[in-house]
């Protein structure tokens, strides 16, 4: 298991907001992503950020316009601001480092150093 720790989850009503944080010894200032996993479903990519020769951010279609990924390298912390939350956003949220493949696809198999997740519950 990796040494990244996600925090900031909780229970909110639909339309509410939460801000997740991720830090730990495996923080990678060059490329990281956020994922979520609902009960009985596979881990799915939510957003990713790259800050290297190639830089940018990408989002899953389901969260575009509602979620914002950012980072603070001085604090070695990755963030996910989640606004206008929907019940479909419920799940365990994880952060991870980019390792293989094209980071923009936000595929779990291309990321690693998974650590402790944080639970997000959105009620209707």
Q: How many individual helices?
A: 0
The SSE string, one letter per element, is: EEEEEEEEEEE
Please give the alpha-carbon distance between the first and last residues.
34 Å
Gyration radius (Cα, Å) is: 13 Å
Query: Helical proportion?
Result: under 10%
**Low-confidence blocks of residues:** none
Shape assignment: globular
- Provide the residue-averaged pLDDT: 96
Q: Which class do the helix and strand fractions yield?
A: mainly beta
How much strand content do the residues show?
over 45%
Number of separate strands: 11
- Largest β-sheet summary: 7 strands, mixed
Describe the overall structure.
With 124 residues, this protein is an all-beta fold. Helices cover 0% and strands 51% of the residues. It is built from no helices and eleven strands. The strands form two sheets. Strands 2, 4, 5, 6, 9, 10 and 11 form a seven-stranded mixed β-sheet that branches. It is globular. The model has no long low-confidence stretch (mean pLDDT 96).
Q: Helices, strands, pairings?
A:
Blueprint: E1 4-7, E2 10-13, E3 18-24, E4 31-37, E5 44-51, E6 55-59, E7 67-72, E8 77-82, E9 91-98, E10 111-112, E11 118-123
Parallel strand pairs: 2-11
Antiparallel strand pairs: 1-3, 3-8, 4-5, 4-9, 5-6, 7-8, 9-10, 9-11
């Amino acid at each position: 298991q990796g040494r990244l720790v996600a925090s900031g989850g909780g229970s909110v009503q639909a339309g509410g907001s939460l801000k997740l944080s991720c830090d730990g010894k495996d923080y990678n200032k060059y490329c990281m992503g956020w994922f979520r996993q609902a009960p009985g479903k596979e881990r799915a990519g939510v957003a990713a950020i790259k800050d290297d020769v190639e830089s940018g951010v990408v989002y899953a279609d389901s969260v575009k316009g509602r979620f914002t990924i950012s980072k603070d390298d001085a604090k070695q912390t990755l963030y996910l601001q989640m606004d206008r939350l929907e019940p479909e956003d419920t799940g365990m949220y994880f952060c991870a480092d980019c390792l293989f493949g094209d980071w923009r696809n936000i595929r779990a198999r291309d990321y690693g150093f998974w650590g402790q997740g944080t639970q997000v519950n959105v009620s209707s």
